[in-house]
UniProtKB/TrEMBL annotation, chain A:
This is Sulfate adenylyltransferase subunit 2. It comes from Hydrogenispora ethanolica. Residues 25-245 form the Phosphoadenosine phosphosulphate reductase domain. Its EC number is 2.7.7.4. InterPro entries: PAPS_reduct_dom, Rossmann-like_a/b/a_fold, SO4_adenylTrfase_ssu, Sulfate_adenylyltrnsfr_sub2. The lineage of its organism: Bacteria, Bacillati, Bacillota, Hydrogenispora. PANTHER family: SULFATE ADENYLYLTRANSFERASE SUBUNIT 2.
UniProtKB/TrEMBL annotation, chain B:
This is sulfate adenylyltransferase. One of its GO terms (molecular function) is sulfate adenylyltransferase (ATP) activity. It comes from the Bacteria. The keyword Cytoplasm does not apply. Its EC number is 2.7.7.4. InterPro entries: APS_kinase_dom, CysN_GTP-bd, CysN_NoDQ_III, EFTu-like_2, G_TR_CS, GTP-eEF1A_C, P-loop_NTPase, Small_GTP-bd.
Length: 293, 601
C-alpha cells in the first residue's frame, strides 16, 4: 500500500469513527485545498454522501471566486451547507481592512468569534436551500459539539501537537499539555456533557500529499491556485487583504506538484504568504488556543 | 512516482536528556529535510543569545518558529530517503508524559531507543523498552549516544550494549542492532564516522531503510470489525452497507461470511466504494464497505469473518497484559468500558495475577489494584460476549483500551481466552430465584382473575417513533378491552428508575437489566407489560428472557431486523407501516396464543 492509500484509509477510518460517535457533528469547509480534500474523503467514507452539515465562516473578505465555487459544489454534490458570519463586526467596520483593528483582532472577530457563535447556535446560521439555490436562515439552533477540521501537522508548530480527536472545554480552550492518549486506532470518543471535540483526519498529510491526492482523485479546486496569467497564484487561500499570492507560473495540478516536490517551493513553508502569522510571534498558537483553526 | 512510495512511522524514545531531539534535528539537517534558512536562523539565534548551537533547538516549536510558518515540530517530523517516506514521532521522555509516549509508540512500526553512553541505562531506557514490546513494536534499534563524551571508547559502548541486551532478553525483545553515535556531531547517523573506526556496522539511516513493513497480513484469517452500517435512504440510496477497515486477510465477492460473536451468516454481494473502479477483492488496510445477499441484523462492533477460516474467540473472559494510565487505580468490582477494535463492552477486573514495576521489572503477586504507570497481568471479564483474538495470532483484534469516566486510562493485549461460565444475567437469575419470596397467589389464580396470561411484550424493529406509537396504541386497546396492561417507555426508565446510571459505558446494558427485573415483577403480578426497544439484538432478548423467568417474553418485530429462528420473535413482516394494522395483527396473535383469554358473559 503506497503512502496516499495509507493516508486515505486512515482518514476514512477517523471520519467514520466521528460519525458513529457524535450526534451533533459538522465539518468545517474553508473552500481551500485541504478542507476540500477532507470533503472528498467524507464522500469516500460515506459512499458518495456527506451525512453531516458543512460549515463555512464567511468573513465577507473572501475572494469572490471562492464563494461561487462553494455554492457550485454545494449544489452539485447535494451538500448541507451552513454559513455563519460576524454580522455585527462587519456592519460596524470593526475590521483590519477598514483600518479599525489590527490583523489579529480582525481574525479573532471575523473568524474565531464567528466560528464559536455559529457552532454554538447563538448566532444566526444560514442554510443553502437546494430548490431556490439561496441561503435561508436555518431553523435549527442546536450546537455542534463535534467539529471535523482539516488541519495538517506539517503546517506549523502548534498543529503538529494535535491529536486526531482533540477535546476542547466549554470555552473552546485547548489544553496542549494534557491531551488524551491515542492507542492504535482507539481515540477519545466518550466525553462529558459540555465538551467539544475537534476531529482532525488530515493530521498526517503534507501539502505535497494534498496535491498528489487532488491529482489522483481529480478533485475540482478553485482556479485561484493556478497562475492567474500574471505569474502569480495562491498557495494558500484566506481573506484577500491578508493572503498574498506567490510568484509561480504553475498552471495546473501537476505543475504545482513538480514545484513542491523538487521545484522552487520544495523547501519553503506554505504559510509564508500569511501576514497574520508574522505579527506577535506565536500569534497562531495564541489564536488556536482560543478556538482558531 | 513519489506517491507510489511507502510510508513508515518511526518513534524515537529514551530517557530525558539522552539526546532524542538532537538525533532528530541532526537527521533532518543531514538529509536536507529542513526548510530553507532554518538552520542558519537557529544558529543566528544562538549567537545572539550567546549560547552554543544545538541541533535540538531545531525541534523545539518555539513561538517565533510558528510565526514564520516553520514546518518542523516536536511531535511529528517528516523526511524521506531514496527508499521511503518517514514520519518521526518524538515521544517525550518524562514519566508524567508516559501517555504521550505511548500514543506515539502505538502508531509506530519501528523504534529508535536512545541511551546516553556517559550516563548509562536509566529508568526510562528500561521502561520504554518494555512499553515498546507491550505495544507490539518489534523492530527496535538502540542508539548509544554521546560517544564523544566517553572518548569514543569501545569498552564503554560494549558495557552499555551487554547490560541493555541482557535486559531486553528478559522481556523477550531482540533489537535489530546497537549503534554507537554522537548525534551532536552526526557520527553514524546519516553517515558512517571516522571517529568510531571500531564500529563496522551500518549507519542509523541504513538501518531505518532496512526496517521491514509489517508481515504479510493478507496471509492471516480475514478480520473486518464492523465500524458502522449505513443506509442513506434520504439520499436516494438503497444500499445497506457494512462499513469498516480490513485488518487482516482477503475477501472476494461471493465469499461466505460469518459475523462474530452473533454467528450470523451471509454472502458478500458487492464491495462498495466511491470514485473507484468496481472491485471484487479487498485486503489488509483497506477502508471499505460490503453489501450482503441477505438482510441480516448485526450491530457495529461485530467482526465480519470469512467462512472456512479460523474464527476469533467468542466470549468475554480473557487474560491480558495491560498498562494503566489512569489517575485512579484499576480496581475490582468497578465497571469500565472496553474498546476492542470497533466493539464496546462493559468490563470488570476479575483478578490480578501479577503487577510488574515497568522500570525494573520486579513482580508483585499479592496486589489488589493496579496503580498509575504500572503494568499488570490480569483477568478481565466483559458483561456481554465479544469477539477477539489472542494478540499473538492477530494483533488488531487482540488489543484493547479501557475507558473510565470518559478517559482512556489503560491499554492492553490479550494473551489467553477462557471459556465463559454463563452470562451475567444467568448468575443474577440464580441468585435472585434463591432469595425470592414467593407470593401465595398462584399464576393460575391470577390468569383466572385477569383473563390473560402474564406476558412481557417487546416491540422491536422498524423506526423508533413508529415502535412507540404501536406500543402505546396496543396498551390503550388492550386496556379498553378489559385487560390488565401497562406501557413502560425506555425514556421513563432512563429518567426514573435508571436515573442513577451515570456511565455511558454500561448505560444500555444496565437499562436492559433493570427492565428485565421490572418485567419480572410485573409479570409475576399477572400483568401484561409492554415496551419498545430500538436496535434490540439477540443478546439483549436473551438477557430479558432470562431475567423475566419463569414468565415469558414475546417480541414483535415490526420489520427490518432479521432475528435468528430460535428467538421468541413474531415478525409482522416488512410491509407493516400503519399503526392500526400492526396492533390488530398483534391482537390476533395474542388471541391465537391464548395470551388474551376471550370470555363471554
Amino acid at each position: 500500500m503506497n503512502q496516499l492509500e495509507k493516508l486515505e484509509n486512515q482518514s476514512v477510518y477517523i471520519l467514520r469513527e466521528a460519525y458513529r460517535e457524535f450526534k451533533s457533528l459538522c465539518m468545517l469547509w474553508s473552500i481551500g485545498k485541504d478542507s476540500t480534500v477532507l470533503l472528498w474523503l467524507a464522500r469516500k467514507a460515506f459512499f458518495g454522501h456527506v451525512p453531516f452539515p458543512l460549515v463555512h465562516i464567511d468573513t465577507s473578505f473572501k475572494i469572490p471566486e471562492m464563494i461561487a465555487y462553494r455554492d457550485r459544489l454545494a449544489a452539485e454534490w447535494g451538500l448541507q451547507m451552513i454559513v455563519g458570519q460576524n454580522e455585527a463586526a462587519i456592519a460596524a467596520h470593526e475590521t483590519y481592512p477598514d483600518g479599525r483593528t489590527d490583523r489579529i483582532a480582525c481574525c479573532k472577530n471575523l473568524k474565531s468569534e464567528a466560528l464559536k457563535r455559529t457552532l454554538s447556535g447563538e448566532w444566526p446560521r444560514r442554510r443553502f436551500d437546494h430548490e431556490s439555490r439561496q441561503y435561508r436562515e436555518d431553523t435549527n439552533h442546536e450546537p455542534y459539539t463535534g467539529v471535523i477540521v482539516g488541519v495538517r501537522a506539517d503546517e506549523e508548530g502548534s498543529r503538529s501537537k494535535e491529536r486526531y480527536f482533540s477535546p476542547r472545554d466549554r470555552q473552546n480552550e485547548w489544553d496542549v499539555g494534557d491531551q488524551p492518549p491515542e492507542l492504535w486506532n482507539q481515540f477519545k470518543t466518550d466525553f462529558a456533557p459540555g465538551t467539544h471535540l475537534r476531529i482532525h483526519p488530515l493530521l498526517d498529510w503534507t501539502e505535497l500529499n494534498i496535491w498528489e491526492y487532488i491529482e489522483r482523485e481529480r478533485i475540482p479546486v478553485t482556479s485561484l491556485y493556478f497562475d492567474q496569467g500574471n505569474g502569480k497564484r495562491y498557495r494558500s487561500l484566506g481573506c484577500y487583504p491578508c493572503t498574498k499570492p506567490v510568484d509561480s507560473d504553475a498552471r495546473n495540478v501537476s505543475e504545482i506538484i513538480a514545484e513542491l516536490r523538487s521545484g522552487k517551493f520544495a523547501n519553503i513553508a506554505e504559510r509564508s504568504g500569511r501576514e497574520q502569522d508574522k505579527e506577535d510571534g506565536g500569534s497562531l498558537e495564541t489564536l488556536r488556543r482560543d478556538g482558531y483553526m | 512516482m513519489d506517491n507510489q512510495q511507502e510510508q513508515m512511522n518511526i518513534v524515537i524514545v529514551g530517557h530525558v536528556d539522552h539526546g532524542k531531539s538532537t538525533v532528530i534535528g541532526r537527521m533532518l539537517a543531514d538529509t536536507g529535510s529542513l526548510p530553507e534558512g532554518k538552520l542558519e536562523q537557529v544558529r543566528l539565534n544562538c549567537e545572539r543569545n550567546a549560547k552554543p548551537f544545538e541541533y535540538a533547538f531545531l525541534l523545539d516549536a518555539l513561538k517565533d518558529e510558528q510565526a514564520q510558518g516553520i514546518t518542523i515540530d516536536t511531535a511529528r517530523c517528516f523526511f524521506k530517503t531514496a527508499k521511503r517516506h518517514y514520519i518521526i514521532i518524538d515521544a517525550p521522555g518524562h514519566i508524567e508524559f508516559l501517555k504521550n509516549m505511548i500514543s506515539g509508540a502505538a502508531r509506530a512500526e519501528a523504534a529508535l531507543l536512545v541511551i546516553d553512553a556517559k550516563e548509562g541505562i536509566r529508568e526510562n531506557s528500561r521502561r520504554h523498552g518494555f512499553m515498546l514490546s507491550m505495544l507490539g513494536v518489534k523492530q527496535i534499534v538502540v542508539l548509544v549516544n554521546k560517544m564523544d563524551l566517553v572518548h569514543y571508547s569501545q569498552t564503554v559502548y560494549d558495557q552499555v550494549v551487554a547490560e541493555f541486551a541482557a535486559f531486553l532478553a528478559q522481556i523477550g525483545v531482540e533489537p535489530q542492532a546497537f549503534v554507537p553515535i554522537s548525534a551532536r556531531d552526526g557520527d553514524n547517523l546519516a553517515f558512517r564516522s571516522a571517529n568510531l573506526p571500531w564500529y563496522q556496522g551500518p549507519s542509523v539511516l541504513e538501518l531505518m531503510d532496512g526496517f521491514r513493513k509489517e508481515k504479510d497480513q493478507a496471509e492471516q484469517p480475514f478480520r473486518f470489525p464492523v465500524q458502522d452500517i449505513y443506509k442513506f435512504t434520504a439520499g436516494g440510496d438503497d444500499r445497506r452497507i457494512f462499513a469498516g477497515t480490513v485488518e487482516t486477510g482477503v475477501i472476494r465477492t461471493g465469499d461466505e461470511v460469518i459475523f462474530m460473536p452473533s454467528g450470523k451468516r451471509s454472502t458478500i454481494r458487492s464491495i462498495e466504494g466511491f470514485n473507484q473502479p468496481v472491485r471484487n477483492e479487498v485486503g489488509p488496510g483497506q477502508a471499505t464497505g460490503f453489501t450482503l445477499t441477505t438482510q441480516i441484523y448485526v450491530k457495529p462492533g461485530e467482526i465480519l469473518c470469512r467462512g472456512g477460516e479460523s474464527l476469533p474467540h467468542q466470549g468475554g473472559t480473557f487474560r491480558a497484559n495491560l498498562f494503566w494510565m489512569g489517575k485512579h487505580p484499576l480496581i475490582k468490582e468497578k465497571k469500565y468500558q472496553l474498546k476492542l477494535a470497533t466493539s464496546r463492552a462493559t468490563v470488570t477486573l476479575q483478578q490480578i495475577t501479577k503487577v510488574l514495576n515497568s522500570a525494573d521489572l520486579t513482580a508483585e503477586t499479592d496486589r489488589n489494584q493496579v496503580e498509575r504507570h504500572e503494568v499488570a497481568e490480569c483477568i478481565l471479564k466483559t458483561a456481554k460476549p465479544i469477539a477477539f483474538d489472542n494478540s499473538r495470532d492477530i494483533e488488531a483484534t487482540g488489543r484493547f483500551v479501557i475507558v473510565d469516566n470518559y478517559e482512556i486510562v489503560g491499554g492492553g493485549i490479550i494473551t489467553e481466552a477462557f471459556a465463559d461460565a454463563g452470562t451475567l444475567a444467568a448468575h443474577e437469575l440464580s441468585r435472585r430465584e434463591f432469595a425470592w419470596e414467593r407470593t401465595a397467589v398462584s399464576q393460575a389464580e391470577r390468569e383466572d382473575r385477569y383473563k390473560q396470561q402474564a406476558k412481557f411484550i417487546v416491540i422491536a424493529g422498524g423506526d423508533g417513533q413508529f415502535q412507540k406509537q404501536v406500543a402505546r396504541t396496543l396498551e390503550v386497546e388492550l386496556f379498553r378491552d378489559g385487560y390488565s396492561v401497562y406501557y413502560l417507555g425506555m425514556a421513563n426508565l432512563l429518567s426514573g428508575l435508571g436515573a442513577d446510571v451515570k456511565s455511558r459505558a454500561d448505560e444500555r446494558d444496565e437499562q436492559i437489566r433493570r427492565l428485565g427485573e421490572l418485567a419480572h415483577i410485573f409479570t409475576d403480578a399477572g400483568q401484561i407489560l409492554i415496551t419498545n426497544i430500538p436496535e434490540l439484538d439477540e443478546y439483549e432478548i436473551d438477557t430479558l428472557r432470562t431475567l423475566n423467568t419463569p414468565n415469558e417474553i414475546l417480541v414483535f418485530d415490526l420489520g427490518g431486523q432479521i432475528f435468528a429462528d430460535n428467538q421468541p420473535v413474531q415478525s409482522l413482516g416488512d410491509s407493516v407501516r400503519d399503526v392500526e394494522q400492526a396492533v390488530s395483527q398483534m391482537k390476533a396473535i395474542l388471541r391465537d396464543r391464548a395470551i388474551l383469554i376471550e370470555y363471554f358473559i
